[in-house]
Q: What sequence folds into this?
């Protein structure tokens, strides 16, 4: 600190009320009204001293809705830190400072009590309240943040590119593959419009993937294998395109009896059994195969879905 700053710091901490305020704000983040209750002083007095502490760099504020919260600055310069240590030590045996801390803890406890009171009355309708505010599953898109940003991901059977566009901001590269020229054109339009990052759109069959050996870290088949005449062969090609240890993820329909899907939507397979998926994945060279049914979506009208995963084993 230079000489001017030293005297400014001394001046700002020379008042006992400001020292008490800062002592409380070192441990708690509180509003003006809460600080009024803690120090038992008029709001005008508390506001005036807070303004001085903020102007001199001792306190910081943040707004949350209509409220403004104060707390002591986290990063004090060394000289200011030493000065504050001296002032704080002088408050250790202060009855006022001890009472300030008790009332501050009560303020924090009241916040927790208000939250608990809300949950005690809302527990029965919490799921619907949460869905109303944030959607049915707000955490699912956030899980994309767990993806390794260095990965190359294959969206195999990409359709119109919706999944590729969703993944692109989180990984290094997406390779989007589809056999249909119309789907590929729709995917290119979507990805161009979204400026979705490094996405390569490639035409080709899933049983003869247009990818190099070991080019991918992850291979995704999302609701596409039931259109493929030879799913086992498509999984073998995915294994070829994955590096050793890379993972495949299949999302598709569990076995069902809705024959009309063949005529209406061109489905080749009426879903898959767990035994089929495990056999194909193991035969393709995937290890540690896992299979689980996905939770039922009450708004969906189609068959139950499953997810199957496995890791690409080392090549013979």
A:
């Amino acid at each position: 600190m230079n000489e001017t700053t030293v005297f400014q710091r001394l001046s700002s901490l020379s008042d006992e009320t400001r020292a008490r305020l800062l002592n409380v704000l070192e441990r708690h983040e509180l509003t003006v009204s809460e600080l009024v209750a803690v120090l038992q002083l008029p709001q005008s007095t508390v506001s005036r001293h807070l303004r001085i502490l903020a102007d001199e760099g001792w306190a910081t504020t943040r707004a949350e809705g209509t409220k403004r919260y104060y707390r002591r600055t986290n990063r004090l310069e060394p000289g200011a830190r030493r000065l504050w240590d001296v002032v704080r030590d002088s408050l250790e045996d202060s009855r006022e400072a001890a009472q300030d801390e008790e009332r501050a803890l009560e303020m924090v406890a009241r916040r927790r009590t208000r939250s608990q009171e809300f949950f005690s009355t809302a527990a029965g309708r919490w799921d619907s309240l949460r869905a109303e505010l944030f959607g049915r599953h707000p955490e699912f898109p956030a899980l994309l943040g767990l993806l390794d940003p260095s990965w190359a991901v294959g969206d195999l059977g990409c359709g119109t590119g919706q999944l590729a566009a969703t993944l692109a901001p989180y990984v290094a590269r997406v390779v989007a593959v589809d056999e249909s020229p119309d789907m590929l054109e729709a995917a290119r339009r979507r990805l161009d419009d979204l400026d979705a990052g490094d996405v390569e759109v490639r035409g080709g069959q899933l049983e003869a993937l247009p990818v190099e050996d070991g080019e991918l870290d992850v291979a995704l088949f999302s609701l596409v294998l039931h259109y493929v005449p030879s799913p086992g062969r498509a999984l073998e090609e995915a294994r070829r395109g994955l590096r050793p240890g890379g993972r495949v993820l299949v999302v598709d329909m569990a076995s069902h009896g809705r024959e009309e899907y063949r005529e209406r939507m061109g489905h080749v397979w009426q879903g898959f059994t767990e035994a089929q998926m495990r056999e194909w994945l193991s035969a393709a060279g995937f290890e540690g195969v896992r299979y689980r049914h996905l939770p039922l979506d009450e708004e969906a009208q189609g068959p139950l879905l499953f997810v199957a995963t496995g890791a690409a084993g080392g090549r013979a």
